[in-house]
Amino acid sequence: MGLIDRIFGRAPKSAPAESVYRTLTAYSPVFTSWGGRIYESDMVRAAVDARARHVAKLQYRMDGSARTKLWTATRTAPNPWYTWPQFLERCSNIYDVENNLFIVLLLDDVGEVIGYFPALPSSCEVVDRGGDPYLKYHFVGGQMRSVRLARCAVITKHQLRDDFFGERNSALQPTMELVAIVNQGIMEGVKNSATYRFMAQLNSKTFDEDLRKERERFDRNNFQTGGGGLLLFGNQFTSIQQLKQDGYKVDPEQMRLIRENVENYFGVSDKVICNEATGDELDAFFNGSIEPFAIKLSDALTKMVFTERERNGGNRIQFTANRLQYMSINAKISMAQQLGDRGVLTIDEIRELFNYAPLPDGAGQYTPIRGEYKDVQGTDADKEDKSDE
């Protein structure tokens, strides 16, 4: 049994009848992968990886009392093959490169949900089976599987014409062509600058055939021996000059514009890519890039796992992050002093700001309130002391 059978189960021997699922826009509901072509660009990969690194730090949790077996199975890992950082990082990569992220539920032998898996089909279409929409996945190896749409989470980006899927990355194609041209120019410039060229004039008049033979003889005697050495010119040559060619230099302004196009398209900055962003810059990156993806992923998994009644009862899946970790050390110290003294933060919450573990036996749940910030009526302990006196 391969991985595809472990995820989707064995393919049925006889598939039920399928028909085209009609949409409101009459736009064919078919997703086709780009095959990761834009991901082969170093600029694109750096931008995509910058967000994936931060998405991988999101924390998974389930709220409510339903699906306790699923919480037990996925508390430390989403499936038998991935850790949560691996799962989240791959989800982010697929989401950015394909603009469509498909997540399927893993079921045990009795049909209970025991995990999640991000699927990466080469193409996907929505088909009708008995009036219910199904996602029909086509994989690179030729395998096909159909899964009820209600059992899948589809997270899209740049969704416009299709009722189910996001748009392709065609808008980035002109920039990718410029990147390819620049890279080719650099490679050819390096090759040309590493070669030797000479120009010389023959003293005697000769025919074209004689010129060709003389050039071949010169190349053979000087460059085909493989041992290096001197270039020997006969007295029939005059005005001998070496043709020098400088290496290809990329215009800095052009490269800056190309890089900004890629960064703007994926919603990251140069400082985030180079891990130089701090404080307000990281907080802005979280608000504009990480948090929207976390909300989409949370809602999609919640809708896929829980029934409508369970959702109305407060059961949901959430991916969260401690945004305070983005603050500078001085800002964290100031917050600990101001909010800790006033009873807003507990000792464990203050320790979390500096990546310290909680105190054992719940000792860190105490709030260190300074005396001048206590209630003027006094705490219960103060009242008991006064009554004893």
What's a quick, concise take on this entry?
This protein is an alpha+beta fold.
The helix-and-strand class reads alpha+beta
Quote the beta fraction.
Answer: 15-25%
Which parts are unreliable, with pLDDT below 50 for 5 consecutive residues or more?
none
- Average pLDDT number: 78
Query: How many beta strands in the DSSP annotation?
Result: 12
Q: How many domain regions? A: 3
Q: Describe it for me?
A:
It contains 13 helices and twelve strands. It has 389 residues and is an alpha+beta fold. It has three domains: 3-169, no CATH class; 195-243; 327-389, no CATH class. Strands 1, 2, 6, 7 and 8 form a five-stranded antiparallel beta sheet that branches. Strands 5-4-9 form a three-stranded antiparallel beta sheet. Helix 2 (42-55) crosses helix 4 (84-98). The termini are far apart.
Labels describing this entry:
flat; three-stranded antiparallel beta sheet; five-stranded antiparallel beta sheet; 3 domains; 389 residues; alpha+beta
Fold blueprint:
Layout: H1 3-8, E1 19-20, E2 30-32, H2 42-55, E3 59-63, H3 68-74, H4 84-98, E4 100-107, E5 113-119, E6 123-129, E7 132-138, E8 144-148, E9 152-156, H5 173-193, E10 197-202, H6 208-223, E11 237-243, H7 252-266, H8 270-273, H9 280-305, H10 308-312, E12 316-320, H11 329-341, H12 347-353, H13 380-388
Helix pairs in contact: 2-4, 2-7
